[in-house]
Amino acid sequence: MKKYIVLSFFLLGFSTIVCSQSVSNDQIKDLISTYKNDVRGPYKDIRWFCTDGSLRQPKDPCPENIGPGVQHARYKDAVVNLGKTNHIYLGQILAYTDAAEFWDVKHNHSRLKQYQLDKYLRTIDNGWVNQKGQFYRGSIQSEDEEVWGIEFYKWLLANDTNLKQNYFLIRQSLKDIPHSGDDNVAQLMRSQSKVISDVIPEFMDLRVKIHSLPEASDIQKVENFKQANTSKISIANGKKIDELIATMTLFFKPVDVSALAKQTTALKNTEIGSKINGFISSNSDTSEPSKLIEESSQLLYDIREAVITETSGAKRLQLLDVSLKLEEIVFKTAQDWETETVDELLNKICYLGLATAGAGYVELSEWQELDLGVKPSENKTMTLDELTQVLENARRQVEWSSSMVKANYQHVVDQYTDFEPLAYGFIDDKIRGSVALHLGKAVSDLGDFIAKESSLTNKVLDVPNQSGFRGLNPGYALGELVVVSGSPEDIEVSSNKIYVFQRSPSDLKPIAGIATVSEGNMVSHVQLLARNLGIPNAALSDDNLQSLLKYNGETVFYAVSNKGNIIMKLEKDMTESERALFVKKERKEGKIAVPIEKIRLDETNILNLRSVDASDSGQLCGPKAANLGQLKKMFPDKVVEGLVIPFGIFKSHMDQQMPDQNKTYWEFLNAMFAKAEQMSQDNSDAEIEAYQLSQLEILRVAIKKMPMKPEFLLELENDFKSILGNEMGDVPVFLRSDTNMEDLKEFTGAGLNLTLFNVADKAKIIEGIKDVWASPYTERSFKWRQKYLLNPENVFPSILVIPSVDVDYSGVLITKGISNSNDNDLTVAFSKGAGGAVDGQSAETYLIKNEGGFQLLAPARESYFNRLPITGGMQKQTSTFDDFVLNIQNINEIRDLAKTIRIAIPKETNSDYEGAYDVELGFKDNKLWLFQIRPFVENKKALSSEYLESITPKINKSKVILLLKNIN
């Protein structure tokens, strides 16, 4: 390895720039633009790098007595500096790179991922940073890069942990890192077609076809396109089309199965080697697509199991290369496997699912949970319900496969997109190049068949693949459709628009309707708000999102039924009954009032969590503290100690004089609402809202600077020590906003106000209290209240202060089956670390069944999680997906806890509440900790809407389906 890897001091030592400050995105854009027009690109010169560490001029090779050395370019100083300051590496030369630094464990393998992204950008942007530098002779020696790649993989694959935790990433990287003379032809084909459509818009239809489901017949279509448009196409663009045709011809060239024997020389006399040889013998002359895919898929899966048992890095490398060839066979052959009956389609889905698991798009344990091996009755029949279960599981595998790609690459793609927008297409390119693409097509065919049999059909404009849509929350909306294909984080949303996102923003403000490709998890704060407020919410596929782009900006009607079927139509196509849903009076009646009749503002002493219970909710404090105090009484060993800063302390501080206003903070707030009411006579809603937000900004800033009463600070210090057992500043705590506007019978308020994680410093705790008091006056919190509450001015925050528990994993329990609407089942979503599942993480989600057993609804797909150091703050750690988050013991304990809650909470609180509960909890060393309990609020209006009921079909789940029935 030493022969081919130059130590990192060479990489860093030639920079004359010493700078620790990050380079801005605009500066990086300028660098890239400069390098595109530089004949040397990101490189400054070429040198010989000798084995003894010395450097020599290009025409002065390393002497034989010190080894052969390698010749390649050195990076420009600014490129080196960018790696130091931003951890961004442009134009990476592998022979210039230490293996461990390239694997980049500390940064979640960022350098390797950047290398892959760089290669993608070069194919779609004429060399990208190397547009002219790609012709800089001698800058990169392909043979040295390939030798480096072989040695790198031998080193990497010798470690069992690397392979177990990062199977998908390692296998994907083999498509991009030179090590065997192969190129990623499929990616090149997609990239070339994109380049052509960018310069010849009329080529777009062919590009879409090549990107979605390429076929050998597409070669003739491209040739016909060129011939039909000869007069319009320039010589340069004609050459691009010829290059695409050549690439497509190479791509569709049949895989030489017999050639696999040359790639398995190290596997002789092994069990998996015998299986490979058997496959070669059986399929060298196979012309039957179904047989070839079945056997290729099985071998793909067998290789994935066998690669772990091998110990040699060289053998593992050969196995993975064979695995890539097998995926190529499946990818090219899948469209030739024509299915006529339900039985044949189920068989195709089973084997494509097996291939998808073998290729690493889901973990093996996840594949086993899906149980897609179909077991029909002896009469070759299945009920509609049984067939729908197969569809749902197969659809899950497609979604999990896409989320595996996103989980591995999204962070790096987002980082690059900030300075190079073209980077955002990388993930889509990876998904389209996977065998999961064909699985998705087969699943769509099954969805279409079941839709006909059940009448549960979607009617979403005129987009194809309607079965890719799946309703999550019932509701209806009318508004402008906004389709966001890129990052959602910088989108300013409007409460009267309908949004389609790749994933929902982390800090979503009120909207009329939503649909997302990445569902996140069904118990996140965003999902709970949508469910609570009757906001129609659906999941869709990447292709569905792309199909909706042409309707971006149109006003549409959007409805999700109680069974999850979806309607979306242009406003002009609405029926009279649909128009009647949006009469202003009806919407006004949907608002609710925050009860303040029993609120007690005279309590101005800090409370011990042990002294409050559910009866104090809305009186002394909010429901978080009241209900956690109740849980402390019921489960004393599962709830931490805590103290509560009641409403009265907040109000007493708000009664202080506000600087520069000649009135108190509270009077300022109420004066704002009074003026807003006056403005309603002559001003638009937008003008009133703008005035209110500007005044709230003034109030919020003032609260953060508000002087704290000395008697309160003294009591805080004393109670902190007596209740939490140590001085303030020595115990890291959570400061949780806990208002009287949360957990009402018809409004959840989940996640609208501030929670501060793991605050240790005394001064930061005091400042944090003021930050939490100010948080109900943020734009997001105010807009949600203003939209759904009749008296949003009557918000009073209390604060729950509890010591941090650095849990191993945490999440949410809903004492109801959300996915199946079964009140007796449970829904659980967990992520690693603290704060799991509530912020929309792609969490491990289960349906825990009342009759026993459980079903995995979604695996964890979050690359980073939170740890809570004793010194305060949060540390981000990286996660892998090879093991489940929850274990059987955890699931059984959650099941027992839910039983107790259902019985004990109503009894202990003398409550007539009969609905489900939303519980936040976590595990530390397998010990369960409870952090919150609240009612699980659903939108009764949406659930009982006559219109939604009218579009919800009555399904005969016991209907018998003959598997020999024709699907067309």
Automatic annotation (TrEMBL):
Q: Which residues form the signal peptide?
A: 1-20
Q: Which GO terms describe its biological process?
A: gluconeogenesis
Which part of the chain is the Pyruvate phosphate dikinase AMP/ATP-binding domain? 620-943
Q: Does the keyword Kinase apply?
A: yes
Checking Pfam families in the record gives:
PPDK_N
The EC number(s) given in the record are 2.7.9.2
Listed GO MF terms: ATP binding; metal ion binding; pyruvate, water dikinase activity
The pathway is: Carbohydrate biosynthesis; gluconeogenesis
- Cited InterPro entries: ATP_grasp_subdomain_1, PEP_synth, PPDK_AMP/ATP-bd
Catalysed conversion reaction:
pyruvate + ATP + H2O = phosphoenolpyruvate + AMP + phosphate + 2 H(+)
Q: Which UniProt keywords apply?
A: ATP-binding, Kinase, Magnesium, Metal-binding, Nucleotide-binding, Pyruvate, Signal, Transferase
Q: Which family does it belong to?
A: Belongs to the PEP-utilizing enzyme family.
Question: What's the protein here called?
Answer: Phosphoenolpyruvate synthase
Q: What is the originating organism of this protein?
A: Winogradskyella thalassocola
